[in-house]
């Protein structure tokens, strides 16, 4: 299931051949390992206009032990990250400073380097000119992401006034190896209280996390990452998948709860289980999902209904039941719903699946205010082409094309989706609510 | 001074689906199955790396290399290697006896938690070498000179290469269990129709229990099997009526068929028992308590009693000690070794003569409400890997009682080879 082409293109003979033929050379991405430094090289931090986040960003870097170089430094060392506080831009004229700062810095960006821009939201701009400048940054960042090579990524954090406390967590995520396959994304933050004192190595310590569809694939990876980050994981999957579910649970010191999430009493059984065993729950990941592909004109109810039931209705019913269950969903709870690129871009043969996955996005957005009132969040993650047992069975051509049509020129791994979900589950991700984060290497589909 | 006792809690259980012999688990050994079953229990209750008081289990058909079967399974499992274990064997009563042993140690405060289990395979059963061949080989290994060795080998005859398979036969009567039961069925006049009806109800009840998710937290799939392989949800009295009798066929009115007798099966089960405090401190449920238990044995060789009738004797002792009548139960689990075993046992309890003469009671124990019998199916549908049956029943009944609410009572009755019976009372 490895990426044979990436490995070939990075081998001795392969790299020469790939260069001569002008073929893409997908990089081996930097992924998070416990104890790994936040960045592999120093960072530079620039500002455009009178920014308000410069100090915050510098503090994050210093706390993580990342050396911060002045923008003008010219020694040859490769940069780990280029950060730009663009909250001060007031008009398109200020963007010249953005260009001036980024151009030389990007030239020095090392492999799997990070470009992170922080800007104010166009929607609360003081003038059309300011809104234009802020919006312009989106186009700029998305284009930079497409220009970067060697596994480097570029993303944009949109920070409204008052949301400064929400910035450090997301900054750490986007700089770290946890965000390896998140590229070209715009993530708006909201002003909220952010609990302090998170352990960087075990940010989920003491949390109880439910992961549906945990027996294999992306769900098993989510369970592993959650456990690595300190959570007690309750893995849920259909009874028929019980043997591998038990193996996953035993590997990570979690528990296996065999449950078909579409059973009429599924939510109540889950709630009773959580109450009895854990007294409550902090994190719920709706990951279980199925596909039953067919062109719409040929689709029967036997393909339509189960996809809706598993991918959308069960997420709705379970979430509602959790909200209704007195005191079960703990303060600061996190719900993360797995959507899909198909739900954003649509996909031939997947009207049922894409509808269900788009529905998840609608659900998350609609619930966000209610979650915010409880100091909780609900978000969606939309994976792109993720290399799993499922994709391994795709025809060679389809798989090759599917995995290359993104800025990182490769498919993502289940762990990439898992890392993003684990990040959204962290206390310090409190400012991300009602959002859809794509884990797609900046896929060309639906972009 | 008599020690203070407490009632052991049944926290939950796990089993693998039971397979028919030489089928899904043909390549699995007793140790494989027991280890997988323990691991499923570990995953269900988060026991990874935990040191428990004791693990007690056994197998009826056992290889000599499995002399420490349970301990080896513990070592191969995710439990702490510091968890002690021992094997027990009481034929088909093994699993229930193991639960009683663990419960008793918990009751006495000698341990706080333990697992009781059982496993059996008829697919990977031990084959013994021919007894004379065995003697030759022993002589050979003690021979010191070449000459002595050649002399020892000269004793080998072709017939000695035929292995001896374990037989499902009583050593003292030479009769198989089915043949014994056929005698009992005839004595009690158990009709073919009643037996088939009981078998059909077992399949229906088991299928319904699966369908409503009852086994979701009692069974963990294994080697591609998610439900008991023997289960036939769509079987019917008409279909079963077509089967030819297989036991007691010397009698023209033979009634026992493959449909109303348990098939040879492979599988394993385990039950987690603990003190209430141990369970509470870990956020684990108490489904029921094991209140009391009793064993009995009958003389099936010379005493004129049926091989599988011992539970009929054990139950009244248990009832008397606990001040209960046979009707004081919300659920009954009478192991379906054969449909006729269940029916003969119930008939015996209703029979004034049997109760007076054999049990020494003034009045018969009486009839039970059949709608409370084996409500989630039993061995005829699930299959009966001998030592695994007790654990299946204890965990399922405990869950059933828990679902019914506090203060519900259940009776377990298991017959075993050698004319033995093991019975127990659970209460939620
Ligand atoms: N693999 C990809 O490229 C990709 C891309 C986009 C989105 N996704 C989404 O990611 C999620 C995980 O996908 P995957 O590739 O790991 O799939 P997978 O099929 O490997 O795993 C899905 C798991 O969900 C479980 N499940 C299905 N129905 C269930 C039910 N009713 N109750 C409980 N569990 C149930 C399955 O048994 C399975 O273990 C899905 O929601 C999928 O739509 C995957």
TrEMBL record, chain A:
SMART domains: PKS_KR (SM00822). Pfam families: adh_short_C2. SUPFAM superfamilies: NAD(P)-binding Rossmann-fold domains. Transmembrane segments: none annotated. GO terms for molecular function: oxidoreductase activity, acting on the CH-OH group of donors, NAD or NADP as acceptor. Residues 207-389 form the Ketoreductase domain. InterPro entries: KR_dom, NAD(P)-bd_dom_sf, Sc_DH/Rdtase_CS, SDR_fam. PANTHER family: 3-OXOACYL-[ACYL-CARRIER-PROTEIN] REDUCTASE [NADH], SHORT-CHAIN DEHYDROGENASES/REDUCTASES FAMILY MEMBER. Belongs to the short-chain dehydrogenases/reductases (SDR) family. This is 3-oxoacyl-[acyl-carrier protein] reductase. It comes from Geodermatophilus siccatus.
Automatic annotation (TrEMBL), chain B:
It comes from the Bacteria. InterPro entries: 3-ketoacyl-CoA_Thiolase, Thiolase, Thiolase-like, Thiolase_C, Thiolase_N. One of its GO terms (cellular component) is cytosol. Residues 285-427 form the Thiolase C-terminal domain. Residues 9-276 form the Thiolase N-terminal domain. The active site is at residues 92, 384, 415. SUPFAM superfamilies: Thiolase-like. This is Acetyl-CoA C-acetyltransferase. It comes from Geodermatophilus siccatus.
């Amino acid at each position: 299931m490895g990426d044979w082409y990436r490995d070939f293109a990075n081998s001795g003979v392969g790299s020469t051949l790939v260069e001569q033929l002008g073929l893409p050379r997908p990089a081996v991405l930097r992924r998070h390992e416990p104890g790994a430094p936040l960045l592999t090289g120093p960072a530079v931090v620039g500002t455009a206009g009178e920014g308000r986040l410069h100090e915050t960003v510098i503090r994050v870097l210093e706390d993580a032990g990342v050396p911060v170089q002045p923008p003008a430094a010219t020694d040859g060392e490769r940069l780990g990250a280029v950060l730009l506080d663009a909250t001060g831009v007031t008009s398109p004229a200020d963007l010249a400073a953005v260009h001036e700062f980024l151009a030389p810095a990007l030239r020095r960006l090392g492999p799997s380097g990070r470009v992170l821009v922080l800007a104010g939201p166009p929607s609360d701009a003081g003038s059309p000119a300011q809104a234009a400048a802020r919006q312009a940054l989106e186009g700029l960042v998305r284009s930079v992401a497409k220009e970067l090579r060697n596994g480097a990524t570029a993303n944009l954090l949109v920070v409204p006034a008052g949301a400064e406390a929400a910035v450090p967590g997301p900054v750490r995520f986007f700089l770290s190896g946890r965000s390896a396959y998140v590229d070209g994304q715009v993530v708006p933050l909201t002003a909220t209280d952010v609990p302090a004192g998170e352990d960087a190595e075990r940010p989920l310590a003491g949390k109880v996390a439910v992961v549906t569809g945990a027996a294999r694939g992306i769900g098993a990876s989510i369970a592993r990452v959650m456990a690595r980050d300190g959570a007690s994981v309750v893995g849920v999957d259909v009874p028929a998948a019980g043997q591998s579910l038990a193996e996953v649970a035993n590997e990570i010191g979690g528990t296996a709860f065999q449950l078909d999430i579409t059973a009429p009493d599924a939510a109540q059984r889950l709630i009773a289980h959580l109450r009895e065993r854990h007294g409550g729950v902090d994190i719920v990941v709706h990951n279980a999902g199925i596909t039953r592909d067919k062109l719409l004109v040929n689709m029967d109810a036997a393909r339509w209904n189960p996809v809706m039931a598993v991918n959308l209705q069960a997420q709705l019913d379970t979430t509602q039941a959790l909200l209704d269950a007195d005191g079960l969903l703990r303060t600061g709870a996190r719900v993360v719903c797995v959507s899909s690129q198909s739900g954003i871009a649509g996909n031939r043969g997947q009207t049922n699946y894409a509808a269900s996955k788009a529905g998840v996005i609608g659900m998350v957005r609609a619930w966000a205010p209610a979650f915010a009132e409880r100091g909780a969040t609900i978000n969606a993650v939309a994976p792109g082409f993720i290399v799993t047992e499922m994709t391994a069975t795709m025809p060679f051509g389809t798989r090759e094309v599917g995995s290359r049509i993104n800025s990182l020129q490769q498919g993502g791994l289940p762990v990439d989706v898992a890392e993003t979900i684990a990040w959204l589950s962290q206390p310090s991700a409190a400012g991300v609510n009602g959002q859809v984060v794509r884990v797609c290497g900046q896929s060309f589909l639906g972009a | 001074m008599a020690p203070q006792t407490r009632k052991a809690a049944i926290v939950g259980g796990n089993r693998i689906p039971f397979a028919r012999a030489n089928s899904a688990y043909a390549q699995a050994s007793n140790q494989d199955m027991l280890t997988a079953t323990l691991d499923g229990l570990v995953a269900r209750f988060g026991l990874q790396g935990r040191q428990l008081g004791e693990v007690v289990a056994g197998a009826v058909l056992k290889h000599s290399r499995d002399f420490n079967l349970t301990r080896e399974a513990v070592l191969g499992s995710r439990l702490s290697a510091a968890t002690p274990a021992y094997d027990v064997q009481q034929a088909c009563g093994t699993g229930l006896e193991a639960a009683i042993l663990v419960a008793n140690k918990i009751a006495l405060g000698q341990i706080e938690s333990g697992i009781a289990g059982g496993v059996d395979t008829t697919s990977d059963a031990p084959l013994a070498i021919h007894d004379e061949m065995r003697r030759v080989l022993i002589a050979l290994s003690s021979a010191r000179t070449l000459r002595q060795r050649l002399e020892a080998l000269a004793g080998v005859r072709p017939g000695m290469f035929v292995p001896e398979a374990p037989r499902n036969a009583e050593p003292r009567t030479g009769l198989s269990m089915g043949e014994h039961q056929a005698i009992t069925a005839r004595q009690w006049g158990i009709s073919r129709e009643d037996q088939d009806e009981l078998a059909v109800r077992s399949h229906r009840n088991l299928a319904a229990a699966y369908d409503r998710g009852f086994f979701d937290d009692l069974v963990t799939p294994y080697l591609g099997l998610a439900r008991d392989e023997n289960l036939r949800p769509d079987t019917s009295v008409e279909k079963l009526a077509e089967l030819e009798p297989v036991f007691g066929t010397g009698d023209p009115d033979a009634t026992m068929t493959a449909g109303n007798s348990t098939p040879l099966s492979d599988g394993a089960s385990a039950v987690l028992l603990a003190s209430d405090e141990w369970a509470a401190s870990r956020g684990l449920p108490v489904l029921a308590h094991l209140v009391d238990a009793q064993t009995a044995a009958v003389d099936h060789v010379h005493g004129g009693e049926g091989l599988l009738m011992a539970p009929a004797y054990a139950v009244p002792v248990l009832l008397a000690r606990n001040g209960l009548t046979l009707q004081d139960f919300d659920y009954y689990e009478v192991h379906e070794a054969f449909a006729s075993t269940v029916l003969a046992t119930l008939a015996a309890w209703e029979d004034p003569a049997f109760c007076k003469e054999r049990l020494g009671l003034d009045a018969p124990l009486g009839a039970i409400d059949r709608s409370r019998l084996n409500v989630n199916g039993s061995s005829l549908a699930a299959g009966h890997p001998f030592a695994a049956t007790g654990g299946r029943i204890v965990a399922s009944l405990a869950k059933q009682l828990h679902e019914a609410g506090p203060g519900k009572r259940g009776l377990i009755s298991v017959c075993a080879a050698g004319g033995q019976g093991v019975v127990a009372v659970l209460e939620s």
